[in-house]
Amino acid sequence: MQSEGCVGRGVTSRRIGLRAAAVASLWGAVTAAARAPSPETAGGPIVRGRNAAPADASENACIAVFRGFRAFPAVFLAALCIPAVAEAQRLPAGLPSSLTNAPSAIRAATDRTRTEAAGPLGPESELRFTSQTPPANAREIRFVLRGVELSGGALYDTAELSPLWESALDQEIDLAEVFALAARLQNRYRDDGYLFTRVVVPAQRIDDGRVRFEIIEATLTSVTIETPGLPLGPMRELAERTIAPLQGLSNPTLAQIERTLLLLNDIPGVTRAAAVPKMGEGGRGGVDLHINMERDAVGFTLFADNRQSPLIGRGLIGGVLALNSWSPAGDSTIVSFFNSADVDDPFPDDFQERHTIQVEHRRILDPSGLWGSFRGLYAESAPGDRVAIFDITSDQTELTATMGYPAVRSRALKLDVFGGFQTMSVNSLTPAIGGLGQDLVTDDRLRVAFAGMRAEYRDPYGSGEGRVELRAGLDVLNASPKGSPELSRQDGDPQFFSLRAELSRTQPFDDRLSFWAKGWAQAADRPLLASEEFAIGGPELGRAYHPSELSGDLGAGLSMEVRYADQAHWGDVGVPYEFYAYGDMAEVRNLDGGAPIHASLVSAGIGVRAQLPGAMSLNLELARPINRPLAHTQRHDWRVLFSASKDF
């Protein structure tokens, strides 16, 4: 999992009420980061290879105190600073790290409360354009089959199809078997994807034992878009260009039609795109394809949870506004705003510890599905709680440009390839106490090129998702130099290579009981800065812990759930719900002796997710740290956690 920073750190999304883009943006601007204390620093001078951003700020504050009060005994210094240092090492915001787009975190907090996840791959459409029935006396009409003649087909020659009837040659058959052979020939076309091709037995006189079959290959004489609901608006032009390759297409395959429908469903705001074929008027093989489409032009989601760090507010509230496909090019804009909230702090102090705003714009560049996006994020934080006395402040600016292409679109597999460039600038300031000493500043400037692929797959037994991404830090555009004293980690290198991977699987056992598992991993070739580290703890991995309790250059984790889904009824209203029990484990390692060299988290819990009336989703969870105490309290107590969202 990606390490979080100034306001949070995150992971990747699927469509919820605001569809895929809005959901990704929802948690892309949200999750908080944290750091665990390093045992190497306890009780002594702060000298280590790995300085996570949060630790730097508080440690620097201690150093400033030391410079101003050199005459004080070391015991007094330790008593004053070490608790705050340990706490600051877990501090997500305000200390240079990074907040990146985190779609999978919203999947953990919200998507899993919904029942819209892809299920196992069901049977293909049984749509047929022939229902030829043998005559009533077909069993009485018998003859010796001497040969087969085909007319009208251009896709296959007779030699390719002859194995279907060779075993019946020179054998006595009846007329019913002739119609059965026509069905086998038609199924051969269907098996190869030619959904609308028909094979018929024309009227004929069989005198010499030779049977004639007529192959009627299909042509899409017209493809039209219908909108049973509200008009599509400006995006109709994009939809028309997307279906244009099907117009007049001879011998259309199921794969071609599926890809087109799935590309239509990929357009932001489209909630439904389904095809209804009818017999066409352009000859015997003509097919008219009617595509029903529906669209949400505007979406809005409110979100709240209590899964954050006490240092920047235990709670989080925010909203996402999505303007979907408002131009003929499918331009879509998503604006997200999130703020800290904490019932333990007086109003308005609880709203002042973290602010995040994110704007994301996406455009369909070509009807083939090629797309481009640009995302800008700005965040500020001023940590409170035990480190409030240090007046630490930080800000983060992030710009990301991405292009992607749907390499595969089918019922069984959706595969996207993507690449882009990202700039991240994270700054932190710890003022000198009482004007003594120097202000301490950390400044990470990363310039990262990335490329990868993500997939969703379904098979007859279940479904899953996967993602792999290669990242490279570049020495361009005023990136931080290696060895700069202002880096968030002394031995961290802004020029690096790292590889991230995720894989999940949902395995149903019946209509109610299922098993879900997801794994994460990261590898790197050298020590990383805080924003690029693998972080554990938070809503997805290490759920009983605060976000980013631990982080490292290398990491891996596994989360598993057993789920039981059903539906309750309030009067005439159905309320889908899901009980679950989970367990997760994760570990991180640091290169070149960074601290911690190795550490792990294990947690477990139970919970319930529900889709309430009024487009509301709720997740209640009881979670417990297992192998190490919660860093903030140093206890293994059970935690009551929640997340909720409301779609408009």
UniProtKB/TrEMBL annotation:
Keywords: Cell outer membrane, Membrane, Transmembrane, Transmembrane beta strand. GO terms for cellular component: type V protein secretion system complex. The keyword DNA damage does not apply. GO terms for biological process: protein secretion by the type V secretion system. It holds the Pfam family POTRA_2. Gene3D superfamilies: membrane protein fhac, membrane protein fhac: a member of the omp85/tpsb transporter family. Residues 110-132 are annotated as: Disordered. Residues 143-217 form the Polypeptide-transport-associated ShlB-type domain. Residues 452-609 form the Haemolysin activator HlyB C-terminal domain. GO terms for molecular function: protein transmembrane transporter activity. PANTHER family: BLR6126 PROTEIN, SLR1661 PROTEIN. This is Hemolysin activation/secretion protein. It comes from Albimonas donghaensis.
